[in-house]
Design goal:
Blueprint (H helix, E strand, L loop, with lengths): L4 E7 L4 E6 L4 E5 H6 L4 H4 L15 E7 L3 E6 L7 E3 H9 L1 H15 L20
Antiparallel strand pairs: 1-2, 2-3, 4-5, 5-6
Length: 130
């Protein structure tokens, strides 16, 4: 059986989740890190992860315990479908630097950004030319 956390704290001011496990392993995970690595099907696809872009400023707005095995995190962009099992959080803390670097490398390879798209992004046409 996997080790349960002894403490989980959502720090809204710093926009982080702090987790401590019984073996003393602990860490602080940013909202952006958690959002882009969400275990949800929306992010993980069905065996083919979907690169999350523009999440630099995403905020954690809440969390809900799910039994004694996971927590659901609620983000201000409407994402709330990922169940973060204890083992997932443990892995995120243990492998944080490698996971974060992998994400940055995938962003760069895709020519994408951590920053949200700005400038409206509206697509239209000149009705006079139709």
């Amino acid at each position: 059986m996997f080790m349960n956390p002894t403490e989980i704290n959502l720090h809204k001011k710093s926009n982080t989740l702090e987790v401590t496990f019984k073996d003393g392993t602990s860490g602080t995970l940013s909202a952006e890190f958690l959002r882009v690595n969400s275990p949800s099907a929306e992010v993980q696809g069905h065996g083919n992860p979907i690169l999350q872009t523009g999440k630099r400023h995403v905020r954690l707005t809440g969390l809900e315990p799910i039994g004694n095995y996971a927590v659901r995190l609620i983000f201000d962009d409407g994402h709330d479908s990922g169940l973060f099992h204890w083992e997932t959080l443990y892995t995120f803390i243990r492998d944080h630097d490698a996971l974060w670097q992998d994400y940055l490398d995938r962003l760069q390879a895709a020519g994408a950004s951590r920053d949200p798209v700005t400038g409206g992004g509206a697509v239209g046409f000149d009705p006079g030319s139709a």
